[in-house]
Amino acid sequence: MTDDAPRRLLIVEDDARLAATLAESFLRRGYQVQVAAREAGALETARRHPPTHAIVDLKLAEGSGLGVVQGLAARDPQTRIVVLTGFAAISTAVEAIKLGATQYLAKPATAREIEAAFGHRAGEALPEIEAPQTGLREQEWELIQRTLAEADFNISEAARRLGLHRRTLARKLAARREGGEAD
After folding, report:
1. What is 12-74 written as a DSSP string?
2. What is the pLDDT of residue 121?
3. What are the pLDDT digits (tens) for 15-41?
4. Which residue ranges does UniProt annotate as crossing the membrane (predicted)?
């Protein structure tokens, strides 16, 4: 794949909020993004919109993340597949790699970590995570969005996890919605 070739990403995640957060992050990074929540839907989406990259949740409510990995790798062995899981285990990591995954990461993983994992080749050391090309405010916004999703969009809980006062977080969210910046 050349550097100017379109990067088509398939996100297979049954947590709609996490899928939306990942989709937004990768859209900003220049990827064309498709999202699926089930194994069957993911494989159908891949048939209609063949991905160059995929992020696959290991445990899906309907179907298997490993089944998705196997199906994607069978369709195109060049697809860069990163498996995400909240239940990391050596046995499933080995199985995912055998089935065609590029890398296996424990949740939570940042978009930068996932993108670095796309560049991993079997038998090589993990690539260095490059310095962010986004500004500090953009990194802060990604952290806020990820923390909000993890806290089920409870602003008080997200503020506690971020070490912010609830009103400060609410002000930052309001400023972002309005297109401004909050300090």
Report:
1. E-S-HHHHHHHHHHHHHTT-EEEEESSHHHHHHHHHHS--SEEEEESB-SSSBHHHHHHHHHH
2. 59
3. 898 899 999 999 999 999 999 999 999
4. none
